[in-house]
């Protein structure tokens, strides 16, 4: 048998953008053909974008997607690419087209092969994930059969994402059919440490079908999800023969040899764990801006670490010249904080305005005469009004700067510091915020300027705009004790356990779903456990009103962790 | 065979309140026994409350629910009620207890019979709804067998809610077993017109098993759902023999005769359609307050119809003396508006404060110098700060007063008039807002005072605190042209189609999922269709940041209509 050459087209699609996504497929198909590929494989739901949520239930959307798949097949052939096998994902609508009630006959998550001017072969995803961020059972019906097709005498079996995460189903069927390669298309969202898990599960399936496996993953941000790409190929014995880089669009080629073995190809190196998470956050923001047509951002700069890290990420996403940093000192803000905010803005080349809130606070207090927490919240809300005024008047996206620790504990003011359309670090615990700030400074010292991250839209991996003195985030913002500065001498540690401890309890309670007895058995003291559990349980309501932000851990707030707002249960 | 007497215990549970829910079961079991019942039937997931969302995935919660069911069985027997058959819903945890990964072995939605001091019989829900507001496939695994049990020589088949909405499954199995009665426990959320649909589907199942059907539904508000009760019994031929009232807790009895036929019992009358929706909104608010321990509310009173209706609902929910109405006139507020707000507050006996926003607006503008929409939003956001200041300083729940028409079109200011923890009319189109205001005034004229609604916590149906002159909502608030009053002479109709037209387009686009071509075929003109679709598609992001509010229509924003925030698709 002859060799066969595959292209892995790891692209960034936009949900609902049928025209743009199809154009990108056309572009990558041309590039793949030029490099000698016979088969080009795109991610899950290429044409529609992923995840499409309830758009799947709109008949007009399904019709438009079907028309677009046919258009694309014709267009490929007209461009002389009719011989190429183009594997793309889309939404299937057979049942709905048969006139059945969409509640009884939902659409499918479909893989199609475009070839010879037609939509040539179809496979419907069998296992529909409906846990964590996934809601596929809600919107799709399950496919009932496995599919393999022949290309130049070689038999290709196909599967979609979750199909390889569960035993049985289509891969078990394909194992009986002696396929030559298992082609999988995926929309697997990023989370810390997932690269390793993906590779393990793929190795298991390669062994099951006794053939190499191709794993093509989507890249890019979509709402609160970030897809990291990192597509790869394993040989039948699980050996890594190809790996695409994370966070950038990519077209890698790989050859299945005449002997049925995968020939070695390029292998992108692993990223440092801090670099990986930081990059995920920047890509989430950059793509959220691009897909919602924002070119700039605004945010409050307090001089603290959270707003400093968010500003740094924003500069990396859209360039410092498109960042509006607003210092909003109150009567309780320290001089150090104001200096740190100004230094940060200067380092990243951001616009920097000072808007003191004291005159506004005095005007409100003349009417309202508030005390205690109500007076503290008033300061935060005046700042919220100012940030939104910048957003409205300059047409830029307001960024919320809250981290996961304070979000979990409700240590923020709703409609105050929590305002914004996107929250870049909402899935990072405070201790991680410090780690990432330190990593970004190390990268700056090593020469990585603003925009030097290798992400979608910046694929070249150039070092970016140089930082003055090679410093990005003022060291003082990283090392000083955290404070909301809403009353004299206030420190976060007045209200919360120290973050080093708090974050460990939060990880156990939220990520690992430990109950009270488990937490005590983990060795945490009773007072800390009860404090943290009370804060977290009370804060559920606030979290519902937080803006979107990228998911980077296994269990983020949002579509992952969904608990009733009203609940009397305490663990 | 002898007669057998059933009690339908239509109760209001709270999610997570295992102790409170179990105590209520005990109380109603005593009352049922006193009235001669041999079997008492409670709603779906009685012990846990419903819907429990991801609480189902917490092992500590499942363990606590299991312990509570056993405690309750023992307690019933100790109280001399061991002979009674007590049918309750709870969460099943067999698979998880077997040590399996909860992702592979999810819990079940379970019905248990408490009898003779033990948890005596169990049935697991077969059909798991995962559409609209339901996410059960996410959290439960499906039961695989039907269950019938004998009481005094009569055979009782059981089913849980969705089990009767779909063909096949446990009811089809029971049809072969010659059961004497089909007992169903339900958590069926309210929506307009659903009473009729429930009765039709129940009649179908009664015919299928050729026996009477008992339908016990939950009552009360839970987050953004309202359960209306309205439990009922149909004879084998579909005839209505018992109906419990809507929106109140209730214990009704019904007898299955020696001849196998249902004996006629009490039948609560139907409510007027406007009364039904109004009552659903008030119960949603009242229960949200009770279950989150709020005793009062605050809201801005503009003199317009939206805030007037919300204030009226609030007075009905918690009494006018617990309502803080805040008039926040700007330089553009008309005298008429200020008078209407004051009249409304006086009518319902609310606290009434005037907080002019002009001095605050001037203070902000001195720093920010905003124009156009940014300046309009500033006014709304200053009001938002004031409303939240009242909420914080008085410890009361802030109410957002937005309706579904403006919410759908994005005609509101995020962090401005949209602030609040609960939005009582977020699922009412503007034209419906006017209708409900007129209905409430007719009810007031007919003698229904504040708190005169028959809802949970006010079961007696007393007419309530009399209204001065028998008027609740100032007629002027109902009849005048709607205006946001954010610039001189502004009218809603400057930016939006007239509401009579807009609401019809919104109903077609949102509720009936019509695409652009359908809307044109519906007879709407192209300009209106394009305007409305553009507004609705753009507003998706804002809607994510709105507070909770009760669902009353088939398709509300929130858990029902979930579209990606980022999407380039236009229908």
TrEMBL record, chains A, B:
Binding site residues for L-glutamine: 131, 188, 194
Q: What does this protein do?
A: Catalyzes the ATP-dependent amidation of deamido-NAD to form NAD. Uses L-glutamine as a nitrogen source.
Question: Which residue intervals define the domain CN hydrolase in the entry?
Answer: 4-258
User: Which residues of this UniProt protein bind deamido-NAD(+)?
Assistant: 377, 406, 542
Which Pfam families is this protein grouped with? CN_hydrolase, NAD_synthase
- SUPFAM superfamilies from the xrefs? Adenine nucleotide alpha hydrolases-like, Carbon-nitrogen hydrolase
Q: What's the superkingdom here?
A: Bacteria
An example Gene Ontology CC term for this record:
cytoplasm
Query: What is an annotated GO biological process for this record, any one?
Result: NAD+ biosynthetic process
**Active site: which residues?**
44, 125, 161
- Kindly provide the name given to this protein in its UniProt entry: Glutamine-dependent NAD(+) synthetase
Query: Where does the UniProt annotation place the signal sequence?
Result: none
Give me the reactions it catalyses. deamido-NAD(+) + L-glutamine + ATP + H2O = L-glutamate + AMP + diphosphate + NAD(+) + H(+)
Whether Disulfide bond counts among this entry's keywords is no
Keywords from UniProt, A to Z, are:
ATP-binding, Ligase, NAD, Nucleotide-binding
The EC number(s) given in the record are 6.3.5.1
GO MF annotation: an example: NAD+ synthase activity
Annotated pathway, please?
A: Cofactor biosynthesis; NAD(+) biosynthesis; NAD(+) from deamido-NAD(+) (L-Gln route): step 1/1
Entry-linked PANTHER family: GLUTAMINE-DEPENDENT NAD(+) SYNTHETASE, NH 3 /GLUTAMINE-DEPENDENT NAD + SYNTHETASE
Give the family, as the similarity comment puts it.
Belongs to the NAD synthetase family.
Enzyme class label: ligase
């Amino acid at each position: 048998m002859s060799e066969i050459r595959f292209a892995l087209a790891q692209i960034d699609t936009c949900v609902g953008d049928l025209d743009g996504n199809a154009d990108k497929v056309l572009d990558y198909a041309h590039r793949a053909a030029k490099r000698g590929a016979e088969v080009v494989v795109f991610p899950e739901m290429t044409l529609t974008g992923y995840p499409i949520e309830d758009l799947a239930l709109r008949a007009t959307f399904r019709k438009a997607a079907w028309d677009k798949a046919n258009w694309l097949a014709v267009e490929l052939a007209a461009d002389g690419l009719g011989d190429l096998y183009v594997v793309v994902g889309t939404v299937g609508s057979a049942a709905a087209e048969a006139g059945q009630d969409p509640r009884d006959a939902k659409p499918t998550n479909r893989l199609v092969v475009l070839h010879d001017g037609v939509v040539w072969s179809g496979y419907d995803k069998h296992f529909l994930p409906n846990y964590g961020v996934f809601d596929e059972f809600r919107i799709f019906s399950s496919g009932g059969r496995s599919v393999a097709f022949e290309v130049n005498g070689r038999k290709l079996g196909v599967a979609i994402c979750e199909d390889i995460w569960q035993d049985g189903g289509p891969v078990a069927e394909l194992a009986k059919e002696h396929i030559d390669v298992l082609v999988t298309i995926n929309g697997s969202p990023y989370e810390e440490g997932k690269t390793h898990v993906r590779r393990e599960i793929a190795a298991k399936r390669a062994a099951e079908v006794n053939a190499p496996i191709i794993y093509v993953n989507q890249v890019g941000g979509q709402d609160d999800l970030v897809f990291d790409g990192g597509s790869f190929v394993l040989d039948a014995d699980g050996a890594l023969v190809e790996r695409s880089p994370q966070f950038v669009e990519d077209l890698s080629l790989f050859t299945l040899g005449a002997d049925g073995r995968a020939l070695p190809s390029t292998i992108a190196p692993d990223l440092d764990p801090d670099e990986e998470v930081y990059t995920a956050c920047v890509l989430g923001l950059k793509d959220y801006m691009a897909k919602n047509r924002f070119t700039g951002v605004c945010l409050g700069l307090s001089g603290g670490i959270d707003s400093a890290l968010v500003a740094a990420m924003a500069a990396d996403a859209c360039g410092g010249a498109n960042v509006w940093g607003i210092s909003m000192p109150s009567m309780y803000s320290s001089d150090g904080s104001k200096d740190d905010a100004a230094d940060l803005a200067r380092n990243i080349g951001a616009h920097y305005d000072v808007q003191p809130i004291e005159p506004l606070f005095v005007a409100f207090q003349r009417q309202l005469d508030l005390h205690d927490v109500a007076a503290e919240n008033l300061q935060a809300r005046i700042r919220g009004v100012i940030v939104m005024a910048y957003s409205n008047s300059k047409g830029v996206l307001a960024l919320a700067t809250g981290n996961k620790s304070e979000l979990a504990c409700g240590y923020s003011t709703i409609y105050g510091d929590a305002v914004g359309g996107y929250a870049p670090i909402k899935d990072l615990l405070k201790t991680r915020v410090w780690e990432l700030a330190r990593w970004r400074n190390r990268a700056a010292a090593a020469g990585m300027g603003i925009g030097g991250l290798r992400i979608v839209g910046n694929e070249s991996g150039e070092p970016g705009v140089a930082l003055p003195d090679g410093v990005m985030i003022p060291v003082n913002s990283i090392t000083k004790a955290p404070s909301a500065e809403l009353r004299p001498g206030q420190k976060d540690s007045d209200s919360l356990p120290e973050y080093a401890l708090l974050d460990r309890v939060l990880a156990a309670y939220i990520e690992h779903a430990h109950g009270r007895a488990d937490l005590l058995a983990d060795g945490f003291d009773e007072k800390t456990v009860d404090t943290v559990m009370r804060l977290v349980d009370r804060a559920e309501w606030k979290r519902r009103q937080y803006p979107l932000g990228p998911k980077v851990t296994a269990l983020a707030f949002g579509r992952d962790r969904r608990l009733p707002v009203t609940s009397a249960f305490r663990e």
